[in-house]
Amino acid sequence: MKVAVVGTGYVGLVVGACFAETGSEVTCVDVDAGKIERLTRNVIPIFEPGLAEVVERNQREGRLAFTTDLAEAVTDAAAIFIAVGTPPDEDGSADLTHVLAVASGIGAHLAADAVVVTKSTVPVGTAERVRAAVASRSTVPFHVCSNPEFLKEGAAVEDSMRPDRVVVGADSQRTRDVMTELYAPFVRTGKPILFMDIPSAELTKYAANAMLATRITFMNEIANLCEKVGASVDAVRSGVGSDARIGPSFLFPGPGYGGSCFPKDVQALDRLADEVGSPMRVVSAVHAANEFQKTRLFTLTEAALGGSTTGRRIAVWGLAFKPQTDDMRESPALVLIEMLRAAGAHVVAHDPAAMTEARRRLGDAIEFADTAYAALAGADALVIVTDWNEYRHPNLDRMRTALRTPIVIDGRNLYDPARMARLGFTYRSIGRRSA
Predict the structure, then answer these.
(1) pLDDT digits 0-9 by tens, 278-307
(2) 122 with 115: CB under 8 angstroms?
(3) Distances (CA, A) of 243 to 132, 212, 221, 236
(4) C-alpha distances out from residue 126 to 77, 123, 220, 331, Å
(5) 2-196 — its CATH code?
(6) How many CB atoms lie within 10 A of CB 249?
(7) SS3 call for 255
(8) Which pLDDT band holds residue 434 (cuts at 50, 70, 90)?
(9) Are 2-196 and 294-429 the same fold in CATH?
(10) For the segment 20-73, what is each residue's pLDDT rounded down to a tens digit?
(11) What CA–CA distances, in Å, run from 178 to 11, 82, 120, 193, 311?
(12) Using a CB cutoff of 8 Å and minimum separation of 24, what contacts does 413-422 make?
């Protein structure tokens, strides 16, 4: 099947490459000529495990191509995916400017009956706006479909190739036939393709992300309570997660969620609910609680240093919002660094993948270390923000020696408090007793 994917960001690039991996002929389109030129040379603009190999292999074998020419990609495609950004507007709602511009462009070049698929995360009602935008420029019959993505950054290729489910909002048999054929290689193990009406498919993505964000935030609030009452969040999490009705996923406490999806989608869902007169009070509270949680690492650091970070050198391990990505959008590390700098601290940071992105965002506002241990040299405290594997089992003796004062603020609960105390560290974590 010939497929066009418009947009080569996290979603579009992964989806296009994985469709090609299963035999489809895929053309990915982007307006950024420099980006397209680099992609043709297999220079991948994002850090995503396994993606570079899939892109290189499928370009070499002729199933994957990149272009800036929308007409070239759209003309004979059976399925055309819109996978461009929907950044939050000033009021928190999703900005559909790029989605609708692409839809209009597709209409101008549509030459055969095709299925236009909204892959971007969009609010309910967007498919109808896409339909109108395409129709305004085309007299060719076409179909519109909602096919939200559920990819986790850091595991996007795996999630794309082996999805838990495929959600498709369709209102024609032609759409169902095309999407069934396209996704057949991905669901051979029996995972379902869930066909539903278009509004339900559009809402499913927001509902799923809001549910996961709620679990994370609820456990963060339980962790904060644990600190006050002398309980251990590790024990509570185990007790709660062992309940088959709840399960253990997304119950690890931390410094708040970030990334390109949860913050944006929670706010967009909240805004949508307000607009239609059905306010979602739980979703509103989740966003507010997460914003507070992002300040906790600074509070813990300040307290461990006697109430002030002025003039102190603070090492930060982890800048990306999660491991296995270089994405710093809405990262808790950015909030921590901003608060530390405002309080007069000098920050030196390390991240295995996000250093280039951090330099782009922060410039010379902080110091960057080539290695995790180099960041510790002469520091008054270490704050761990992202749970990269290399931070999980470091040489603790070497850490203690490198630090000016052996203070560790662990935002991911990587270490055993009792062991840290025995080794002479002042150790603070999330939802556990201080050591």
Answers:
(1) 999 999 999 999 999 999 999 999 999 999
(2) no
(3) 47, 17, 19, 11
(4) 22, 6, 33, 28
(5) 3.40.50.720
(6) 9
(7) coil
(8) confident
(9) yes
(10) 999 999 999 999 999 999 999 999 999 999 999 999 999 999 999 999 999 999
(11) 20, 16, 19, 12, 62
(12) 413/233, 413/234, 413/252, 413/253, 413/254, 414/384, 414/387, 420/396
Separation of alpha carbons 89 and 85, rounded Å:
12
167: Cβ–Cβ under 8 A, 6 or more apart, which residues? 146, 147, 148, 150, 194, 196, 201, 204, 205
Start-to-end CA span in the chain (Å): 60
In sequence order, the 6+-apart residues with CB closer than 8 A to the CB of 218 are none
Handedness of CA 170, 175, 177, 180 (dihedral sign): negative
Closest CA relative to residue 2, chosen from 26, 31, 38: 26
pLDDT score at 262: 93
The answer to whether 426 touches 406, Cβ cutoff 8 Å, is yes
64-65-71-74 Cα dihedral, nearest 10 degrees: 10
Looking at 184-280, list the stretches that DSSP marks H as alpha helix, in order from N- to C-terminal side: 198-229, 233-241, 262-275
With left for phi above 0 and alpha for psi between -120 and 50, is residue 322 left, alpha or beta? beta
Residue 259 backbone phi and psi in degrees, to 5: 95, -175
CA pair distance 263, 347, nearest whole angstrom = 25
Any residues with CB less than 8 A from the CB of 282 and at least 6 apart, and which?
214
Q: Write the Ramachandran bin of 214: left for phi over 0, alpha for psi from -120 to 50, otherwise beta.
A: alpha
State the amino acid at position 238 in one-letter form: S
Rounded CA-CA distance 410/387 in Å is 10
The question of whether 28 is a catalytic residue gets the answer: no
Among the residues of 120-197, which ranges form H helices? 126-135, 156-161, 173-183
Judged against a pLDDT cut of 90, whether residue 88 lies above it is answered with no
Among the options 28, 145, 226, 261, which is catalytic?
Answer: 261
The class (CATH top level) of 294-429 is alpha beta
Report the top-level CATH class of 205-292: mainly alpha
Shortest CA distance to 301 belongs to which of 418, 412, 429?
Answer: 429
Locate the domains of the chain by residue range: 2-196, 205-292, 294-429
